[in-house]
Amino acid sequence: MSSTPARIAVPDSARAQSATALPVPELPASVEELAAEAAVRLGWNGVVLPETVLMGRKVVVVAELIADAHAERVCVGATPEADRTTVSTWVWPEMEGRVPPSAVRIVGVLAVARHWRTGLASAVPFARFGNAAVVLPSSVAFSHDYLVNCLPRVRRYGVSVLLADTERDVTVDASGRNEQVPVEDTATTRWVNELVYEQVLATAS
């Protein structure tokens, strides 16, 4: 007896229909344009940086340069430090008073995505450190999946959701935490701060 598994014949028309039954919506504008508009809608004042990869997630950071701290670092030649191992030593007790001050304040982190699961996977890790939001195509708001699965999760994590329509108009659909959150000074937060500091200076130049 042959061990070949049985196959069910499926008409080409049915196969094509199933493949296009749930198309992934397109973004109506570039990531940079949508992120800039979202920052305005959320009242996030700061520099909207180009999309980058932080902690393995593609995000857009909105940050403010701390003028006094930046001036101090320029005076002593303390440029942004991107080496994570080096920065991890900055939080050791014996290093207190010997490391450069944080020169930027991260106002918020945005994830611009075509699907809410992708957006949340990128934004949620940063919700522990401050404000986080996702920008999605407005068409996702009409899906059962968005209403039943996405909205309860964003409320749980304090993440804001903004929807971008085909005319590129961005509106807030769900408000998360949107305030200045004290950030614990850890090896990870200091390292992320240094990466953002480096990006702010690169953008300014």
Structure report:
- The chain starts with 11 loop residues before the first helix and ends with a helix.
- Helix content is 39%, strand content 20%.
- The chain has 7 helices and 7 strands; from the N terminus they run ααβββααβαβαββα.
- α5 links the parallel β4 and β5.
- It has 205 residues and is α/β, with parallel strands linked by helices.
- Strands 1, 2, 3, 4, 5, 6 and 7 form a 7-stranded mixed beta sheet that branches.
- It has one domain.
- About 8% of the residues have low confidence.
Core attributes:
205 residues; alpha/beta; seven-stranded mixed sheet; 39% helix
Element layout with pairings:
Elements: H1 12-19, H2 31-42, E1 47-48, E2 52-54, E3 57-65, H3 67-76, H4 84-88, E4 104-112, H5 116-127, E5 131-137, H6 144-157, E6 160-164, E7 170-174, H7 187-204
Parallel strand pairs: 4-5, 5-6
Antiparallel strand pairs: 1-3, 2-3, 3-4, 6-7
Please give a quick description of this structure.
With 205 residues, the protein is of the alpha/beta class. It is built from 7 helices and 7 strands; from the N terminus they run ααβββααβαβαββα.
